[in-house]
Design a protein that fits this description.
Two copies of one chain form a homodimer. By secondary structure, chain A is mostly helical. The first copy, chain A, is built from seven helices and three strands, in the order βααββααααα. Chain A binds a DNA duplex through helix 2.
DNA sequence: TCAACACCTAGAGTCAACTCTAGGTGTTAT
DNA sequence: ATAACACCTAGAGTTGACTCTAGGTGTTGA
């Protein structure tokens, strides 16, 4: 079973431009072409696209994904490199989630503050309400940095 | 108390290029310049930079940050727009954290799998071990999509 | 047979967010 | 008074990841 580029566009949601671009960048080294140069994607190629999507979602750049694919093709001699890629990624994702948690707190504070400001029709009044001053103190080391 | 651009570079970690770029893009509409054109940043400007950093961290583009600053300068008539910006951001951050949680699962699975593969010296053996097949089934709807 | 259609390549264009260059001004230490 | 230094502007260049254009090929239904 093989698929035309149009089929793969429908299956993946990627554009045909993007699929050709990925190939040019070495992300799909196995895609076959028929006698007249038309691509015929295999199920294996589709699985690679799923993996590429995951690696992209985890924040890898295209050249890093290409590196991973090259390692994969070199076989078991590159297991250690691939393990260390996933370890690093996991650590980076942990940091990213911690970062987002901090940002989320700040944005939630702003949302609450502005909800109150809309209610009373004035930002300064809301900002100076005791409960918002306490909330700010609780959430931030240096609360004055957060009044813009 | 005012600060030269060099002082602000040290305080914020942003480059002087970036600070001038932000100003050109309308993110720092209040920075004063002395008679010979040299920037003198105020504490107020530094607080804006803190806010800009937060908005950038939350994923806003520079033109969206400029919009926010413009709304701020228009005063209480734009409270509703600003509230809705923060609401949207909070929702986007929630989605982003959910997305990262899913990605994290996949990457952690890969890390475990490769740790085992390194231990036994062969990827296929690790992949076919009962405990990894079960783990894969538990983690993913379509486990075969995840063998690359 | 001929128009519509899906596909092809090479290479140019776009966008965001910087980052740097060239050429100049103003201030300060020796 | 001159060299070093920090600063200035306008505008060009960079990077990553696409996205599109121009010009062409191959297949298929009326």
């Amino acid at each position: 079973m093989t698929y035309s580029i149009g089929d793969v566009v429908k299956k993946t949601g990627l554009s045909a431009y993007t699929l050709r671009y990925y190939e040019k960048e070495g992300l799909l080294p196995f895609v076959k072409k028929n006698a007249s140069g038309v691509r015929a994607y295999s199920d294996e190629d589709l699985r690679w696209l799923t993996m590429i999507e995951c690696l992209k979602d985890s924040g890898l750049q295209i050249k890093e994904i290409r590196q991973y694919i090259e390692w994969f093709n070199e076989g078991d001699s590159t297991l250690a490199q691939r393990l260390s890629l996933f370890e690093n990624r996991r650590k980076i994702l942990e940091k990213e989630m911690a970062r987002l948690t901090v940002v989320m707190n700040k944005i939630r504070y702003k949302e609450l503050l502005y909800r109150e400001a809309v209610r009373v029709g004035n930002l300064d009044i809301a900002t100076n309400e005791r409960r918002f001053m306490q909330l700010k103190k609780k959430l931030f080391e240096s609360p004055d940095d957060f009044d813009k």
